[in-house]
């Protein structure tokens, strides 16, 4: 069971349906955190953690908004217990941000020229054949 913080009441109905997947993603997260950093650039060490965080949040988002497979109560529980990132989900609901990889990619203060991350530039606007990789999370293009 994922680490449930501070909450003393039991999880709502439907938890047993999503628990195995969340356990698997938590196990992957632990492996990514304990993975060796030898031979990697400083920024590359956090990329697997960002990827797993995105997967977990997207899983909860898809279950609630796309497939309507979980209740509002269970969805709110996941947000309250920080199982899913509510700020990232809020961005996914806005037009143009449906595939956003992480919140750091849209923060202008984290870039050299005060703009969005390079992964937010549409691939059609980039040079042909050029591989673009986000410095923050390793994304190769989340704008489409």
UniProtKB/TrEMBL annotation:
<protein>
    <recommendedName>
        <fullName>Protein BUD31 homolog</fullName>
    </recommendedName>
</protein>
<dbReference type="InterPro" id="IPR001748">
    <property type="entry name" value="BUD31"/>
</dbReference>
<dbReference type="GO" id="GO:0000398">
    <property type="term" value="P:mRNA splicing, via spliceosome"/>
</dbReference>
<comment type="similarity">
    <text>Belongs to the BUD31 (G10) family.</text>
</comment>
<keyword id="KW-0539">Nucleus</keyword>
<dbReference type="InterPro" id="IPR018230">
    <property type="entry name" value="BUD31/G10-rel_CS"/>
</dbReference>
<dbReference type="GO" id="GO:0005681">
    <property type="term" value="C:spliceosomal complex"/>
</dbReference>
<dbReference type="Pfam" id="PF01125">
    <property type="entry name" value="BUD31"/>
</dbReference>
């Amino acid at each position: 069971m994922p680490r449930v913080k501070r909450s003393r009441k039991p999880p709502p109905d439907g938890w047993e349906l999503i628990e195995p997947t969340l356990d698997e993603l938590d196990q992957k997260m632990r492996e990514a955190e304990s993975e060796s950093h030898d031979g990697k650039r400083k920024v590359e060490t956090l990329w697997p953690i960002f990827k797993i965080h995105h997967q977990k949040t997207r899983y909860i988002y898809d279950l609630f908004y796309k497939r309507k497979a979980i209740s509002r109560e269970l969805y709110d529980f996941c947000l309250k217990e920080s199982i899913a990132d509510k700020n990232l989900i809020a961005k996914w609901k806005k037009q143009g941000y449906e595939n956003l990889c992480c919140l750091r990619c849209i923060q202008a203060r984290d870039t050299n020229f005060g703009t969005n991350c390079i992964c937010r530039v549409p691939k059609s606007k980039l040079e042909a054949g050029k591989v673009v990789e986000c410095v923050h999370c390793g994304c190769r293009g989340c704008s489409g």
